[in-house]
Write a structure and sequence with these properties.
Blueprint: E1 2-7, H1 15-28, E2 32-36, H2 40-44, E3 48-51, H3 78-91, E4 95-100, H4 102-113, E5 117-122, H5 138-159, E6 162-167, H6 174-183, E7 187-189, H7 197-211, E8 214-219, H8 247-259, E9 263-267, H9 279-297, E10 303-308, E11 311-316, H10 317-320, H11 329-339
Parallel strand pairs: 1-2, 1-4, 4-5, 5-10, 6-8, 6-9, 7-8
Antiparallel strand pairs: 2-3, 10-11
Helix pairs in contact: 1-9, 5-6, 6-11
Bound molecules: 6-O-phosphono-beta-D-fructofuranose.
């Protein structure tokens, strides 16, 4: 068999170990792999390179994706869909392994609907894919954000300031929640909860009174009632570029105006996405990549390999794509145990 592997959507730590796992597992069973470049763009435009076990040596600890990625929607136009099918035909691909978040997996489901064998592997620093306990990329990205918060704590404490850290995550608050929880923020704002300015100010005032500095974490997706940035710029899947809104800077301004404290904000943006995958992400990506090949070899395509209670299982695309996985209530209760 010949496996066609691609990585789509935003890069994140763990993509390379996942590619490595697909290639190695397929080779172990006597099968070949081909890597498509830059996500679905490579399938549409027929850009690919062979991937042998020798090509994936050392990928277990490497950040980004050696295949490149893009936010290309291959089914945006019917003529592109024809190109995708033609590429797979001419390259002799038996199974496509699509490694990505909900957009990439959505395109994978569409390809499966059009009669091709496809298996999905969920990734994203946002941790917002349904049906899996965690997506790889999340733990590594949050570790960067926690380190940033700890660095900001030094400056906040030294200068007696209120500092706001804005983190990514799109419309799910997982990154902010984990950063605030693990980094000990005085207030953590997630898109799942309505913005309550008085409650935020009360937390900041308490922290300022107790220790003369305050730390706030805000998710880029929190709605402060700001207009879309850069005239509402969107990617190919219709997602607004949320970082352009500048939620962190605006929140710092409001805190400063209301409390009189000296305030600053930091937006760490893509710094969260790069760098070597952490242990958890390396292992999870390796397990999922290998499981994707196993699913295909067992004839169980049309599925996404996911982590469920410690086990790796295959679930239908529809289950993984049944809406964004946002932060669940028990996590919010835990968060507010510490910042209330
Ligand atoms: O989906 C991952 C993510 O990092 C989001 O958290 C963020 O909103 C978005 O990608 C940024 O996208 P881009 O890399 O296209 O600016």
């Amino acid at each position: 068999m010949r496996f066609g592997v691609l990585t789509g959507g935003g890069d994140c730590p763990g993509l390379n170990p996942a590619i490595r796992a697909v290639v190695r597992r397929a080779a172990m069973a006597g099968h070949e792999s081909l890597g498509f470049l830059d996500g679905w763009k490579g399938v549409r435009d027929d850009l690919a390179r062979p991937l042998t076990p020798a090509d994936v040596v050392g990928l277990e600890g490497k950040g980004g994706t050696v295949l490149g990625t893009s936010r290309t929607n291959p089914f945006a136009r019917e003529e592109d869909a024809h190109k995708v099918l033609a590429t797979l035909e001419h390259r002799g691909i038996d199974v496509v392994v699509a490694i990505g978040g909900d957009d990439t997996l959505g395109a994978a489901r569409e390809l499966q609907r059009r009669g091709r064998a496809v298996v999905g592997v969920p990734k994203t620093m946002d941790n917002d894919v349904r049906g899996t306990d965690w997506t790889f990329g999340f733990h590594s990205a949050v570790s960067v954000a926690v380190e940033a918060l700890e660095r900001l704590r030094d400056t906040a404490a030294s200068h007696h300031r209120a500092i706001v850290l804005e983190v990514m995550g799109r419309n799910a608050g997982w990154v902010a929640l984990a950063t605030g929880l693990a980094g000990g923020a005085d207030a953590t704002l997630v898109p799942e909860e309505r913005y309550d300015e008085e409650a935020v100010l009360a937390r900041v005032r308490r922290a300022l009174a107790a220790r003369h500095f305050a730390l706030v974490v805000v998710s880029e997706g929190v709605d402060l009632g700001l207009a879309a940035g850069r005239a509402g710029a969107k990617d190919e899947f219709g997602h607004e570029l949320l970082a352009e809104r500048g939620v962190g800077a605006e929140l710092a301004r409001r805190i400063g105006a209301a409390t009189g404290a000296e305030t600053r904000s930091a937006q760490i943006g893509h710094i969260q996405r790069g760098g070597a995958p952490e242990l958890f992400d390396r292992i999870l990506a390796s397990r999922l990549g290998a499981a994707a090949v196993d699913l295909a070899l067992a004839g169980r395509t049309g599925r996404v390999a996911v982590l469920r209670g410690g086990e790796i299982v295959g679930i239908p695309f529809d289950e993984a794509l049944a809406g964004t996985r946002t932060v669940e209530a028990p996590w919010l209760d835990l968060l507010h145990t510490f910042d209330a």
